[in-house]
Design goal:
The complex is a heterodimer of chains A (about 180) and B (about 400). Chain A has about 180 residues and is α/β, with parallel strands linked by helices. Chain A is built from 4 helices and 7 strands, in the order H-E-E-H-E-E-E-E-H-E-H. Chain A is elongated. Chain B is built from 18 helices and 8 strands. Classes of the chains: A alpha/beta (about 180), B alpha+beta (about 400).
């Protein structure tokens, strides 16, 4: 059934929709970055598609590949019960793509989620702030080159192990904390 | 200008009716507030007691779920999934393992499917009991809360027997489930369900026709079906608006197509309808559970495929093949084929979706969870702007936002 969606997409947007495929029962296609709003509007408003429910927007960081990022949209129709996945390639140099929050309001928070964790900007988004991390946070945690360990205190940390203010920048030896005293055995 | 103000004052017949200087007040509800479950801060602008603007701010509970999962093996992700929706952990476990199994292209044994359904439906009742109890508590009905928590404790006793843990179950495995049901479990579960049904009906009698409860919930936090779909609502919150969408019916997974159950649908989309959906779904879940307990077949509960499943211990210690398979799974993780899938189940609050990408190795390349609570929370400002501040509390209760899954 959902094959019909892919066929209709390719027929309607022969230049913008590429390489439709089915894998493990999931229908998916690659969409050109500039055409995502147009394709989204078609999928939502066409009665044969009727994809009123945007399930999620997320991104994947394929570090080392030519267009580094990929934004993934999952859509479903509540009347026809078909689903489709749209994949949009986004290069690192121009990490920006058009926002679909004008089509589905739920995209507002999902695009903030992608901006926060992957650092991709959405042109035309009404309120592009970080969703989880503090606004002053440096870096975007789900990028593959973001370090797994490390601290980025938002309040000044004291230089001693402290339950409230955190363990401080470096773990220190007993000698540094109590110079000249032997540790108790 | 003083002269003009004097004139205006003079024109008023009654000085008590004089316009007082006023400006909108901005308050922070949360992040540490008893009615803000978990740690959500809502930045509210008030005109008198009317909400002019609301901006929920999340992230205080952000633990980097996706980042953590990308750096452990597929099996080691399971304990993290418990901590998403910690009120109904088995539903998360089932959703995650179904996604990995879809990517691997494997099918689990019949008995494992039934046990997953049984565990999931027990936890669905727990989740709804929590929501109903918390809603009653925050609207002043402490008695109903106690009944709900007693019922939840009884069910958690069964969950503890089944999985070994009350809250963070980590029960499923890729290819099946961790262990079979203990002896006599189904009989005890039937007794528990009977008692839980009594408690549930007691809550029903306390709340559903309660004048105070109705006044607080009827007509507050209203959202139309069209807006709810646009905001990405799923689950009971969407069905309360009259959209009969349930993944268990629309796209049956596991063995849900073998049970006879109904999808309750509301009509107004207000707080009371969302509460009523939960009450009715608990009845339907009990119906599913009783059918599953009758139909459950005997047989293995996990696949006998050592590429995905740990070999039995006698094989590990008694044969070189078993030892190597054990070593490979522990050290390298289950080798999931290259590709990406989106798998979805009906969790207690809506569609729980998993977008998993594998590069063919033992660790997820990417693991995205579509938590049902996030889109619903994003629609909160739409539901409460223009209503009174006091209406925020039942609205926030009835959408049943779980901090663990929304803030990941």
């Amino acid at each position: 059934m959902a094959k019909a969606v892919l066929d209709a997409l390719v027929a309607k947007f022969p230049d913008a929709v590429r390489d439709p495929y089915t894998f493990r029962g999931d229908e998916a296609a690659f969409v050109e970055r500039a055409a995502i709003v147009e394709v989204g509007g078609f999928l939502k408003h066409d009665p044969a598609m009727d994809m009123k429910l945007l399930l999620s927007v997320t991104a994947v960081d394929y570090l080392g590949q030519a267009p580094r990022f990929e934004v993934v949209y999952h859509l479903t129709s509540l009347t026809h019960h078909h689903r489709v996945r749209l994949r949009v390639k986004v290069p690192e140099e121009a990490a920006e793509l058009p926002s679909v929050s004008g089509i589905w309001r739920t995209a507002n928070w999902w695009e903030r989620h992608v901006w926060d964790l992957y650092g991709l900007r959405f042109a035309g988004h009404p309120d592009l702030r970080r969703l989880y991390m503090p606004e002053a946070w440096q870096g975007h945690p789900l990028r593959k080159d973001y370090p797994l360990r490390g601290r980025q205190p938002q309040t000044p940390e004291r230089d001693i192990p402290d339950l409230i203010r955190g363990p401080g920048p470096q773990p220190r030896s007993f000698d540094q904390v109590f110079p000249g005293r032997a540790p108790r055995r | 200008m003083p002269n003009e103000r004097m004139d205006v004052e003079a024109l008023r017949e009654d000085p008590l009716e004089a316009e007082l200087p006023r400006r909108n007040m901005v308050i922070n509800l949360g992040p540490s507030h008893p009615a803000m479950h978990g740690t959500v801060r809502t930045h509210i602008e008030l005109d008198g007691e009317t909400i002019v603007k609301a901006d929920p701010e999340i992230g205080f509970l952000h633990r980097g779920f996706e980042k953590s999962c990308e750096n452990v093996t597929w099996t080691q992700c399971l304990p993290y999934t418990d901590r998403l929706n910690y009120v109904s952990a088995i539903l998360n476990n089932v959703g995650f393992t179904l996604a990995v199994e879809k990517l691997c292209g494997i099918d689990v044994p019949e008995r494992a499917k039934y046990i997953r359904v049984i565990g999931g439906e027990i936890h669905r009742i727990c989740d709804h009991l929590t929501m109903v109890g918390a809603m009653a508590l925050e609207l002043g009905g402490f008695t109903a809360f106690l009944y709900a928590i007693e019922a939840r404790e009884l069910l958690w006793d069964r969950v503890a027997e089944q999985t070994g843990a009350r809250l963070t179950t980590t029960y499923t495995r890729i290819g099946g489930i961790e262990r079979d049901l203990p002896d006599g479990f189904l009989g005890r579960l039937a007794d528990t369900l009977t008692r839980v049904a009594e408690l549930r009906e007691e809550i029903d009698r306390l709340l559903t026709r309660n004048r105070i409860f109705l006044d607080r919930t009827r007509g507050t936090g209203v959202i139309s079906a069209e807006d709810a779909v646009d905001y990405g609502f799923t689950g009971p919150c969407l069905r309360a608006c009259g959209v009969p969408y349930d993944v268990r019916k629309a796209h049956p997974y596991l063995v849900y197509d073998r049970f006879d159950f109904a999808i309750p649908v509301g009509e107004r989309g207000d707080n009371f309808d969302r509460y009523a959906m939960r009450m009715e779904e608990m009845r339907q879940s009990e119906k599913i559970l009783r059918q599953a307990m009758e139909q459950i077949p005997s047989g293995p509960v996990i696949l006998d495929d050592w590429r995905y499943v740990m070999p039995p211990k006698p094989e590990v210690y008694g044969s070189i093949e078993g030892l190597i398979a054990h070593f490979k799974i522990v050290m390298e993780g289950v080798q999931v084929p290259k590709g990406e899938v989106y798998a979805y189940t009906e969790a207690a609050n809506g569609e729980l979706g998993w977008y998993v990408v594998s590069d063919g190795g033992g660790r997820p390349y990417k693991l995205h969870v579509r938590s049902p609570g996030l889109p619903i929370l994003s629609g909160l400002p739409h539901m409460i702007v223009g209503s009174m501040l006091a209406d925020l509390i039942p609205t926030f209760d009835s959408i049943n936002m779980i901090g663990g899954e929304v803030e990941q």
